[in-house]
Amino acid sequence: MKYYIIAGEASGDLHASNLIREIKMLDQQANIRAWGGDLMQEQGAVIVKHYRDLAFMGFAEVILNLNTIVKNMAFCKKDLMAFRPDVLILIDYPGFNLRIAEYAHTQGIKVVYYISPQVWAWKKGRVKTIRKVVDKMLVILPFEKEFYRQNGLEVVFVGHPLLDALALRTNIDEQAFRQINKLSDKPIIAMLPGSRKQELKLMLSEMLKMIAHFPSYQFVVAGAPSINHEIYEGLVGKHQAAVVYGQTYDLLHHAKAAMVTSGTATLETALLGTPEVVCYKGNMISYEIARRLVHVKYISLVNLIMDREVVKELIQDELAVGNLQKELASLLTDDNKLARLKADYQELTLKLGGVGASANAAAEIFRMLS
Predict the structure, then answer these.
(1) Which CATH class, in words, describes the domain spanning 2-160+353-369?
(2) DSSP string, 165-195
(3) Do domains 2-160+353-369 and 167-351 have the same CATH topology?
(4) Which overall architecture, per CATH, does domain 167-351 show?
(5) In 10 A of CB 322, how many CB atoms?
(6) Which pTM does this prediction carry?
(7) pLDDT digits (tens, 9 = 90+) for 316-347
(8) How far apart are CA 323 and CA 227, in angstroms?
(9) Given CA atoms 19, 158, 166, 298 in this order, what sign does their dihedral have?
């Protein structure tokens, strides 16, 4: 059968790649065409457009890149009809994907949405669109099933695919990790400033300020594969920090603590058991618009899933040097806090339903097509 998959960012590339692997176990003749990244390509998908050309963060940035987005959408519709898949599989990325879903529905193409848009946070009106144009919704957060049920839509909770990705990892030992990346013997503090250029420039500059306050630690940036290495080199400059690429899980596994920009990375960090502080500062216009439109108590997935503050969130003006220094110090030295955090992380893992999300999602898709 023919599958057309659209993933618009790094986390979508990861989850879609695991989904493709499971689809191929059920359908050995699977013909997969996709918008995504290197991980999806490694699993055999033909990549039409790379997500590095698609990810625009914030309201202001979307407006500035509107012409590019419109052109991408027109090209996607044309390419979709030329390929004529048996199913269109959408991975998150709602601003783009829901419009493509509407178009595919009018053309008689079955639509599966895997990893729900965050309609529970804002734009709840999108549920009506989903009900009309999506044939099957597969959700990965436990509270999403109840949210959709209350809004008149039955969905399938398949578990969280991050647990699959983490189960497949093979960590190298700490000494080898240090040698490969030419790191010192100092304990490591990880920095995950995001995978989009806009957020990277804002966030990394804030995180690098901590180096002066923790001289006995080695600071290491997790480089995103979609961003040119020269950009990191320019931002890090003369700071005593290292950058590693394609080794985020190893970095987090060996780090004593991490500073993480909100997103999937906050959940990855928690599931790996690394103490973290969530850091977020956006374009002022985009932030003010979002603050008025988004109605959630927290910005990190960890706190949203647990429905309470498990990890500290420093947002916009709260992301000041003093606040970040204080929180980072407590993660490194407060044994009582670390014990509570460990217990909370274990509870979080249980809430996500265990491994098997990718296989469950593939089975649901294959069952629908069969």
Answers:
(1) alpha beta
(2) HHHH--PPPHHHHHHHHT--SSPEEEEE--S
(3) yes
(4) 3-Layer(aba) Sandwich (3.40)
(5) 8
(6) 0.80
(7) 889 999 999 999 999 999 999 999 999 999 99
(8) 29
(9) positive
